[in-house]
Design goal:
By secondary structure, the chain is α+β, with helices and mostly antiparallel strands. It folds into two domains: about 80 residues, no CATH class; about 100 residues, no CATH class. It is built from four helices and seven strands, in the order ααβββββββαα. Helix 2 crosses helix 3 and helix 3 packs antiparallel against helix 4. The longest helix has 19 residues. The radius of gyration is 21 Å and the shape is elongated. The chain starts with 9 loop residues before the first helix and ends in a 10-residue tail after the last helix.
Length: about 210
């Protein structure tokens, strides 16, 4: 679910790009959304509060990544890991964990079975002592974890370097919109290095479990 607002205001983006007319407001607004999406993908974060879902076929095993394909046999308490990392930081909360039977009926897993680790980045869903992962009978997307991530409900909680990077990317794309030829140093399809430098301290390379 996309955020209800953007972390950067239209007026601030226009000031960064030195735009003193309202003729291109629709374009700049679209560029703000595109720049936010680019920066979120680059950093692995959600800036404004958003709801996400992680779907799995099976829970991760202790010796393999859960996206690596097929594994033989059921997941048991002996070969499971005790947590799963959730893409998109910062993690705020886990809304629900559902697992499905072969008739596509969902069962809500009791929240008392797991602990939500929102301190680590990326955040984790961790088993409580004595709990085991529920085993779905639906072979594809049998597990759905719904969770909330983001710094807050508006841009005031988003770190300033991230907002600066978004404003600069909007200005860059606005300046080079529609040009047929640009140099490699000003390639409109790439973000200038200064923007990447602003975002690098916040970048998370999600690698699974």
């Amino acid at each position: 679910m996309p955020p209800s607002v953007e972390p950067v205001l239209l007026a601030d983006a226009k000031q960064q790009a030195r735009i003193d007319t309202s003729a291109d407001d629709a374009l700049v607004t679209a560029l703000i959304t595109a720049a936010r999406q680019w920066a979120e993908k680059y950093t692995g974060r959600a800036f404004i509060t958003q709801t996400w879902q992680l779907t799995l076929d099976l829970w991760p095993g202790a010796s393999e990544h859960y996206w690596d394909g097929m594994r033989q046999g059921p997941v048991t308490a002996l070969d499971q890991v005790n947590y799963i990392s959730l893409p998109k930081a910062p993690l705020q909360s886990v809304t629900s964990v559902n697992y499905y039977d072969n008739a596509d009926n969902a069962t809500l897993w009791n929240a008392g079975n797991y602990f939500v680790d929102s301190v680590r980045e990326p955040g984790r869903l961790a088993l409580r002592l004595g709990a085991v992962w529920p085993v779905p009978s639906r072979l594809s997307n049998g597990i759905v974890i719904t969770y909330v991530a983001g710094y807050g409900n508006d841009g005031t909680s988003v770190p300033e370097p991230i907002k600066t990077a978004i404003r600069q990317l909007v200005a860059h794309w606005y300046e080079y919109r529609g040009e047929a030829a640009v140099t490699r140093a000003t390639d409109a399809t790439m973000a200038p290095m200064v923007i990447q430098a602003l975002l690098d301290p916040y970048r998370i390379r999600f690698s699974g479990v």
